[in-house]
Amino acid sequence: MTLSEKKNRGEWSELYALTSILATGKIQTGKTSENAEGTEFPIVSVSRKINGIDHIFKIAGLEVEVLNTSDNTPIDKVSRLELSRQSELLLSKIKIGKGRSFPIPEAAPILSALGLDKVAGNGEKTDLTITIYDPRIKRESEQGFSIKSFIGS
After folding, report:
1. Which residues contact 135 (CB under 8 A, 6 or more apart)?
2. Percentages helix, strand, coil for the chain, rounded to the nearest 5?
3. What pTM was estimated for this model as a whole?
C-alpha cells in the first residue's frame, strides 16, 4: 500500500475490525433476556480473502501468527498488544477522516506486519471468516461476517 492511498470509511473499518478482533482474541454474542451479559467465545483464527488469496491469522497466546496458506505454517508473528495499539489508532483516524475517502499512512506498518497489500477485499460477501471455540459444545465452528461501518456517521 502506498502511503497516499485513499480508502473509504468502510474499507478502513474492515482493517480496524480485523486488528481489533485479533487484539482482543474473543467475540461476544449480543445480550438476550436469558443472558444479560452475552457470551464470550475465544477466537482460534481469522481469515480474509483478498484477490482470491486467503490470509489466515491464528491466535497464539499473546501473539497472532500469520500463516502460510499452502501448509498453515507460521511465516510471521505480530504482538496482540501492538495490534491493540494499531486498532485504537485506526479508529481515531477513521473518526477524523475527511471526505468520502482519505489516506491513513499510519496503517502501512500493520498491513505489512500482517502480510496484507490491500486494506479491503474485492467484493467478497464475507469480509472476515472467524473460527471460534465454543466451550459449551467443546468444538470449533466457523462463521463468515460482513463488516458494515457506522463510524463517523
Report:
1. 41, 42
2. 25, 35, 40
3. 0.86
CA torsion 66-72-73-75 (nearest 10°) is -30
CA 85 to chain CA centroid, Å, is 13
CA distance 136 to 14: 29
Length of the chain (residues): 153
CA distances for 52 relative to 32, 55, 69, 124, 140, angstroms: 37, 10, 12, 9, 24
Query: Contact 37/31 with Cβ under 8 angstroms?
Result: yes
Alpha-carbon gap, residue 13 to 1, rounded angstroms: 16
Tens of each residue's pLDDT in the chain, 153 residues:
444 588 888 889 989 999 999 999 998 877 666 656 667 889 999 998 877 778 899 999 999 999 988 888 888 999 999 999 999 999 999 999 888 899 999 999 989 899 887 777 666 678 888 999 988 888 998 988 888 877 765
DSSP line for 29-76: PPP-SS-TT--EEEEEEEEEEETTEEEEEEEETTEEEEEPTTT--EEE
3-class secondary structure, 117: coil
